[in-house]
């Protein structure tokens, strides 16, 4: 039985977090071996690194004391999504663009294609979003497959909610997909309501894909 505790993220956890992100990043499943997105560093730029570097105080990890203090899960987020979107574009946009043009486009054509596919489909992401007023915070949560469904996700989410509440922020939202059959019951059980279904799609060649937005008032 793992002996789990939750603590604030530290810089030394970066590689573990990036690995967990990659191993759970394909609609909740492992990307390794799918040949869909082999540029692991770019995947990190897109989904994790911004939070780890610029919103460190809102990041927490789950650690297994019985396995040499291994990091087995994380929750990352922001208290202010509107500002985070702006900061992400400013601080990560150029890194992503340079890597796409001068590295990924040549070395990892499958990753390049996925990013272009996503950018074409993600129109609503750049529209001003009234949701952010009521639910300003958002989160990303991922637990290693071999540690899932034994309460770690719940512990991480409880810790993040406690942190957001303490900061005086009134609500949290998050996006997932209709294909993520672990995340949907998880968020429902934790008191999140489905607010929106959008046609935005991240992954190519996944039929009937929809983006679901869940939210909770604190
Ligand atoms: C979603 C996720 C964070 C849940 O964390 P977890 O530690 O597995 O969840 P918990 O053990 O705390 O489970 C709480 C509830 O979530 C639901 N749940 C968790 N795993 C589930 C599964 N495999 N199938 C169905 N429901 C599941 C259940 O309702 C569960 O309550 P129960 O134990 O009474 O059945 C985890 O499965 C995960 O990291 N998945 C891959 C990454 C991902 O999809 N992240 C979310 C992206 S939006």
UniProtKB/TrEMBL annotation:
GO terms for biological process: glycoprotein metabolic process. Residues 143-218 form the N-acetyltransferase domain. It holds the Pfam family Acetyltransf_1. The keyword Transferase applies. Keywords: Transferase. The keyword Mitochondrion does not apply. It comes from the Bacteria. One of its GO terms (molecular function) is acyltransferase activity, transferring groups other than amino-acyl groups. InterPro entries: Acyl_CoA_acyltransferase, Glycosyl_Hydrolase_84, GNAT_dom. Transmembrane segments: none annotated. This is N-acetyltransferase. It comes from Effusibacillus dendaii.
